Amino acid sequence: MTTVDPSGAVQVGLAALFMSDPEITQYVTGVLDEVPDLAARQYPFIVIPDLMSVPDGTHDDPGRMVTARIQTFVRGDMDVPATRLDHLIGARIVALLDHGHATLDPFVTGANVWMVRHVESRKMPDADRSVRRRMDRVDIFTSQN
């Protein structure tokens, strides 16, 4: 039995989930699949640039594990870490996704999301020193519909 790669559907589902969440939409201008050119950037925003998909079925069900690296870009006052938007947005992303398969599954078409696990959060450097970038990596386990 062949497994259909669900990474495109997972990427679309993640973007739809984030843009349907009132807490995230109060902060971000959008959820994108790549970082826009410098002149076109409207901060803050979320980028889901790439996903890695590897076979990982359950018993006799074909399925895949999709790893997403979700990046948050924020510009502005960076002096107080507890109130920085990159941390607030990232915390909400983790709250939605860590063990949140039931939250994500309705947004992913063509595959069943049966487990989501937050793997790490990381502060990432940016060439522009006034921009803060956070990356949250999640593993999303799917089975084929």
Overview of this protein structure:
It is a single chain. This protein is an alpha+beta fold and 145 residues long. The protein has a single domain, classed as STM4215-like, CATH 3.30.2000.30. It has helices spanning 7-20, 22-25, 85-97, 101-104; strands spanning 31-32, 45-47, 51-55, 63-75, 111-124, 131-144. A hairpin with a 7-residue loop joins strand 3 and strand 4. The chain is elongated. It starts with 6 loop residues before the first helix and ends with a strand. The model has no long low-confidence stretch (mean pLDDT 89).
Quick overview of this protein structure:
The chain is 24% helix and 35% strand. The chain is an alpha+beta fold. It has one domain: 2-Layer Sandwich (STM4215-like).
CATH architecture: 2-Layer Sandwich
Q: How many structural domains can be distinguished in the coordinates?
A: 1
In terms of per-residue confidence, which ranges show pLDDT below 50 for 5 or more consecutive residues?
none
Shape: elongated
Task: Give the N-terminus to C-terminus distance in angstroms.
Answer: 12 Å
Can you tell me the CATH topology?
STM4215-like
CATH C-level class is Alpha Beta
Element order: H for helix, E for strand: HHEEEEHHEE
Regarding quaternary structure, what we see is: single chain
What is the average of the pLDDT values?
89
Number-wise, the strands total 6
> What would you call the structural class?
alpha+beta
The share of residues in extended strands comes to 35-45%
